[in-house]
Amino acid sequence: MDLASKARFLAEMIVASSKAVALTGAGVSTESGIPDFRGPNGLWKRIDPRLATIQSFKLFPEVFWLFMLKSADLILKAKPNRAHYALAELERMGKLSSVITQNVDGLHFKAGSRNVVELHGNMREAVCLSCGYVIPLKEALKMAKRSYFSPLCKKCGGLIKPKVVLFDELLPCKALEKAIWESRTCDLMLVAGTSLQVYPAASLPEYAKLRGAKVAIINEEPTPFDENADVVIRAKVGEALPAIVDLVKEALRRA
Q1: Are strands 231-233 and 214-218 parallel, antiparallel or unpaired?
Q2: Catalytic residues
Q3: What is the pLDDT of residues 64-93, one digit of tens each?
Q4: What is the pLDDT of residues 120-145, one digit of tens each?
């Protein structure tokens, strides 16, 4: 099938589904100016990924916070793009049950999505590693800027960390449980903008497929799950998703 036929086929799948869920990755946010991690201009080409391990954070928290002071504005000031708005519109239309995202930028919420599962945490908050006390990330950044050191918890004096999941750190239990539940109970999973390289998120399409759901992949580059997907659209998500939403609307008007 050519690209237009695949888009129409996917739109028909969305219309026919009773519970569709989306799984999104960095490719959904690159068009908002947020770099991905593994691409040609990805984050790991510019900084050592070992900086983003939980062990490194505990040993050298001031180094991590210095990185945050230099880079947080890029994410905090980013705005949703057409891909985010397209998924939010599908939810409003009753054709998307939830968005499971590996992104921490909060752009799905900003675009209007309501049922969002943030697998890797968020950039809205920071948390004390000792007592669990949570403060707004902007407050933690101000503390780090004033002291040029890692902000410390007002309650217990423990290290405060952005509420994002670092390498070698466990995912939030409730978010992971909900993501698995959504994957196991959907009849269509729309995988958008993720290379499906990072586990356990990369296993979610497998959960869906094993329970009989159809899987559609929209990504510029190949993924390990392509051969098992029902349809693969090789395109930018910011271009493909709005076009597919238009086709869904058209199909619903004809119904």
Answers
A1: parallel
A2: 120
A3: 898 888 888 989 999 999 999 999 999 999
A4: 999 999 999 999 999 999 999 999 98
Cα dihedral 82, 44, 118, 228 sign: positive
- Give the length of the chain: 255
What does pTM read for this prediction?
0.93
Query: Under 8 Å CB-to-CB from 33, ≥6 apart: which residues?
Result: 74, 78
Q: Specify the 3-state DSSP secondary structure of 36.
A: coil
What is the distance, to the nearest Å, from the Cα of residue 175 to the centroid of all Cα atoms in its chain?
A: 12
CA distance 205 to 188: 10
Positive or negative CA dihedral for 94, 186, 35, 240? negative
For the chain, domains (ranges, CATH) are: 1-33+80-120+171-255 (3.40.50.1220), 35-77+123-164 (3.30.1600.10)
Given a contact cutoff of 8 angstroms between Cβ atoms, the answer to whether 84 and 28 are in contact is yes
3-class secondary structure, 128:
strand
DSSP state of 201: G
Host H or E run for residue 187: none
Shortest CA distance to 230 belongs to which of 214, 244, 219? 214
φ, ψ dihedrals at 218, nearest 5°: -120, 110
For residue 185, which amino acid is it? T
Find the angle CA(179)-CA(98)-CA(120) to the nearest 5 degrees.
Answer: 45
The answer for residues whose C-beta is within 8 angstroms of residue 149's C-beta and 6 or more apart is 61, 62, 65
Residue type, 117: V
